[in-house]
């Protein structure tokens, strides 16, 4: 992988992390505000389910975009060595 393509991947990774974090943060705050307003007004039976139905998928979308950006920022990872590497010559009792 060339240095230019790695830099572009890191740039878009940071960009996606910023956008995903803002989506999750702002929609989470809005969901909390609407749910809290429903509790304070005494109409929790109608406000909280609506806030959760509309807010949680958007929060999940923001978290997913953030995690995708983090994966793009980190780039390909080396695989972990297997535990059985180096044990081929040992006999089992």
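^ Assign residues to that structure.
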């Amino acid at each position: 992988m060339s240095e230019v393509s790695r830099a572009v991947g890191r740039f878009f990774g940071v960009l996606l992390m910023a956008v995903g974090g803002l989506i999750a943060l702002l929609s989470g705050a809005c969901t909390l505000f609407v749910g809290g307003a429903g509790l304070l007004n005494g109409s929790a039976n109608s406000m909280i389910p609506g806030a959760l139905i509309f807010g949680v998928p958007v929060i999940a979308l923001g978290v997913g975009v953030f995690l995708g950006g983090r994966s793009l920022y980190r780039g390909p990872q080396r695989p972990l060595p297997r535990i059985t590497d180096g044990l081929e010559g040992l006999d089992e009792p």
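The helical segments are 3-41, 44-74.
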